[in-house]
Amino acid sequence: MPRLEARGVREPIPARAGIGLRAVHHEALIADRPSVGWIEAHTENYFHEGGPAVRALERARANYPLSLHGVGLGLGSADGVDREHLSRVKRAIARFEPSLVSEHACWGHAGGEFFNDLLPLPHTEEAAMLLARQVDEAQDFLGTRLLIENVSAYVTFEHSRLHEWEFLSAVAATSGCGLLLDVNNIYVTSQNLGIDAHAFIHGIPIGSVGEIHLAGHTRNGSVLIDDHGSQVCEEVWRLYRQAVDRFGAVPTLVEWDTNVPALATLVAESRRADLILGEARGLAA
Amino acid sequence: MASLREMQNAFATAMRDPTAPCPVRPAGNLSIYRNNSTLSFRAALESSFPVVRKRVGDDYFRQLCTHYRARYPSRSGDLHWVGRDFSAFLLEHLHGSEYAWLADLARLEWSREQASISRIEAALTAEVLANFGPGQLEHLVFSLQPSLALLASDFPVFTVWQANQFNDAPPVNQSVGSECGMVRMRIDGLEVRQLAPGPFSYLSALRAGAPLGEAISSAGLDQDGVVSALGFVFAEGLVCALKDGRSEKREL
To answer: What is the spatial distance between Cα B88 and Cα A125, in angstroms, rounded to a whole number?
Structure first.
């Protein structure tokens, strides 16, 4: 099924570093207009008709290309997708005209209860096909191609038969979606579950990655927790270089959602990604 | 092999009951998801009901969150709606106790939450009344700001709410009596304001679509009250549209 691309009036997200739009940075982002490539906002925060958040996004949108990143659809939920939620995503797309729209390879509700977290999927054929079908239906309804992100995992299902990269590749190939590769999530999952992060990156098809996420994590005993609450660690920067070597210069977002620092600190973190992307573009020229 | 639905149902059960079996490993790490989900749910309630939380204290508020979640689990992937039934829950949970008034305080705070995400329409000024003849005025039907919420309580919840905008708020005597008022969103922020019963009745009637004459009658306003009430809705920027309720044609 052919994919509808984003409307032509939306400028493409450049192959540069972007930053997440956080409420504490709204005023500084408008006043200082830092030189970042683009901004990303959590879709669910902008469902409403009014309020300071949507006003801030409208103002920021005038200055930067926008990516909308959803966390609440649970496209891998066997109970199906909430149609009202999907409609709200569609209205947000129409209102804010993002150049990229993304969600997660996860589930979020069962038996009518929503857990408001990115719950892990078993890596089975059935799960891959259900996720692919619901991503396909969502893309048709929304009128845009989606990028689907790999989540951090703290457990693995006993019934999993595929490697996560095989699972994601199957979802992308079947639905026509792109992938949002979260390199920090690859690192966290690899440390927690003993999988090979290098094999993960090299198991994702070239050309399928439309965006990369970088973020910090924290250690809680023997477990790494994906809390997006600190700088990107050196191991993740090393994995990121591997990803850029393989996939080329891809729009890269630096996420920092908890213990949010000053805007200048977040922008400085994004500069490091810009340097790596610049080197990749130089090599490709 | 278990189906995807069976696996997700088992996971969901284990999210509620740590002793329930779930086909994952290490099973102990399910606590991370349990914790994440609980913290998100609680944070949403803390954000929506800061004064209820302040009045009952953190420990009891956490207990209320736990009981509320068991009774009214999240029904949406959008965390904004987690608190939708909190007032109804408090009414059930605290019925007959000296804390039953917290349900009305929660209702006020939820109205604030909803007002904060409502759009602000361009307001009409009183000059628009010049477009209508004297005989039309009593038939005018008003469209008011979408963020406007009107609440009445048997308890002094507006006084409690105002007092708790400051640290070291003194306790409010809940026996002071009933209060009514409004919540609305302005360009410069949210407004919570207590109203006298007359203007409250008048605004409620207008809000329900009653024509002006009927709204004034229901509020029992005298001539001075009528002038004041009409001036109030326009001066406060509450009027978005007007029409003669007898005709579908003319709307401003």
So the answer is: 43
Segment A161-186 mean pLDDT: 98
pLDDT at A98 over 80: yes
Strand partners, B141: B243
Whether A50 contacts B189, CB under 8 Å? no
What's the CA gap between B104 and B172, in Å, rounded? 15
Distance to chain A for B98, nearest Cα, Å: 32
Q: Which of A69, A103, A157, A224 to mutate to test the interface with B (most CBs of B within 10 A)?
A: A157
Q: In whole angstroms, give the CA distance from residue B240 to residue A7.
A: 33
Q: How far is A184 from chain B (nearest CA, A)?
A: 17
A with B: how many residue pairs have Cβ under 8 Å apart?
123
**Strand ranges inside A32-159, DSSP E:** 39-42, 66-69, 100-104, 107-110, 113-119, 147-149, 156-157
Does any CB of chain B come closer than 8 Å to the CB of residue A51?
yes
- Which residues of A are less than 8 Å from B146 in CB distance? 49
Q: What is the ipTM of this complex?
A: 0.93
Residue B245 binned pLDDT confidence (cut-offs 50, 70, 90): confident
Mean pLDDT score, B136-154: 95
Q: Quote the pTM value.
A: 0.92
Of A48, A117, A121, the CB nearest to B117: A48
What are the structural domain ranges in chain A?
A: 17-284
CB contact under 8 A, A159 and B7: yes
Single-letter amino acid, residue B239: V
| pLDDT above 50 for A147 | yes
β-partners of residue A219 are A224
Give A48-80 pLDDT, tens digit per residue. 999 989 999 999 999 999 999 999 999 999 999
Mutation target vs B (from A155, A188, A193; most B CBs, 10 A cutoff):
A155
- Above 50 in pLDDT, residue B177? yes
Superfamily of domain A17-284: Divalent-metal-dependent TIM barrel enzymes (3.20.20.150)
